[in-house]
Design goal:
315 residues, six-stranded parallel beta sheet, 13 helices, 10 strands
């Protein structure tokens, strides 16, 4: 994705999250509902296309690809995700995703359309659908299997893999307010939870900002030898490291969730994740309720330092 495309992606999110934009969006949504009802008379498909907000990235896209895969399996109809800038690398890494991806220019007027919002993993997907997608689409990739073999050189049976999300969660004010957590405080608490049931032989930290991790997470060395350097193969090397791990600590990132979904399906991994995903998810973080992206077997880590949320905007 080019710098210009990335800036447009961020802008699409920050603009729609101002007070005026939210009010305007309500009006637009209601207007579109009326228009959609009229158009539905001629939009009869049978193919369906899921449209995704521009702010979405790889982890977000995977939910919609899984939805298309599950729906195609159940109905036999053609179901697609409209292609977005940046998807090319995912289609190259996991070639079967191409079967469920459609160039936006090729969407027919008669095609059924729906906004892709399918992150409620426990409500919108069955365990069988998750397992089928992971095995048939992700783990079937020869490219990804090569990265899994490479990751196993760094990740043993007792390795703890930690995934830390930084990037635009912390570089853009609007996104930070909604997603930015106190990473250091959270990881100190999460590792204490982990140590109650597991003594890691070593720790591998995967992140989009390994320099920040090396500078701020040195306390991990007190637990076990810790590697902050990339193992190779970029983000898919990180994804593979998560996929082969039996012990995972995540921050609030869909990329990390997906690595842990694969690890849960593949070897029933132990997973710890923060009890909050985003401010706008409207969850009462003072209860034990986990974000809807979490699998049932995961442990939602709750603050014990007097705050009810890991979000820096609520601390």
């Amino acid at each position: 994705m080019s710098t210009e495309e990335e800036n447009e992606r961020i802008s699409s999110y920050t603009k729609r999250n101002t007070g005026l934009a939210k009010a305007q969006n309500v009006v637009k949504y209601r207007t579109r509902q009326v228009i959609a009802k009229c158009i539905s008379v001629v939009r009869t498909g049978p193919e369906k296309v899921y449209l995704i907000p521009r702010i979405a990235r790889g982890g977000n896209w995977l939910y919609e690809w899984m939805k298309a895969h599950a729906e195609h399996h159940e109905t036999g109809n053609d179901v697609y995700v409209a292609q977005m800038p940046g998807m090319d690398v995912w289609l190259e890494e996991f070639p079967l995703l191409k079967d469920f991806t459609l160039d936006a220019q090729k969407i027919r007027f008669r095609s059924l359309r729906e906004i892709g919002m399918h992150q409620r993993i426990r409500e919108q997907f069955t365990e069988e659908q998750i397992q089928r997608f992971v095995h048939e689409v992700l783990l079937s990739s020869e490219h990804f299997q090569q990265k899994i073999a490479h990751a196993q050189k760094f990740v043993g049976e007792d390795t703890l893999v930690i995934n830390v999300r930084r990037g635009d969660y912390y570089s853009h004010a609007h996104i930070h307010k909604n997603f930015g957590i106190d990473t250091v405080a959270y990881l100190r608490e999460a590792t204490q939870h982990m140590l109650k049931v597991h003594a890691p032989s070593n720790i591998l930290v995967t992140s989009d900002d390994t320099q920040w991790c090396a500078e701020h997470l040195g306390f991990l060395e007190d637990i076990a030898p810790t590697q902050f350097e990339k193992i190779g193969y970029g983000m898919f090397g990180d994804f593979a490291a998560l996929a082969v791990s039996r012990h995972i600590i995540l921050t609030n990132t869909t990329f990390g969730y997906w690595g842990a979904y694969v690890a849960t399906v593949r070897q029933n991994a132990q997973v710890w994740a923060p009890n909050v995903h985003e401010l706008e998810q409207k969850i009462d973080h003072r209860t034990s309720q986990a974000p809807f992206q979490h699998l049932q077997s995961w442990t939602a880590v709750t603050p014990t330092d007097g705050y009810h949320s890991w979000l820096e905007s609520e601390r």
